[in-house]
Write a structure and sequence with these properties.
Oligomer: single chain
CATH architecture of the largest domain: Sandwich
CATH class of the largest domain: Mainly Beta
Distance between the termini: 54 Å
Number of helices: 3
Largest sheet: 4 strands, antiparallel
Structural class: alpha+beta
Number of strands: 7
Amino acid sequence: MRTFDLAPLYRATVGFDQIADLMDRVLADTGTTQSYPPYNIEKTADDAWRITIAVAGFTDEDLSVELRENALIVSARKSAEEEGKTYLHRGIANRAFERRFTLADHVRVTGASHVNGMLNIDLVREVPEALKPRRIEIASGDTVDATAIETEKSS
């Protein structure tokens, strides 16, 4: 397996720490990719997504969806009521899990639902008004009217 040293990226850039950390995390996780529980990531609109996780056998009380520092953390702990049962065959995996999804800036969770053994988490990107592109009026003549620019900023 090939490894990459991202130290030159840290030395040569300022303010790109999140990208370098993300690349470090992705490259480090390639050998230990978690496969349980299975999930889908679906694009529902230009700036909206849905994460669907198969959580058969878990109740709403067993599941936890938490947002912490641009990370969506989905976890499940099975309640202790299963302890006294004797199984002849056990093919449904009800083991505890924790799945993490790193979210981009300005992506927020709009809701979560648990239907028919599927946990659906809806996400949307909401770019703040200050970061959206805006049109700058081009003045004719030699002078630029500073009050027009200030008025444009405040509106």
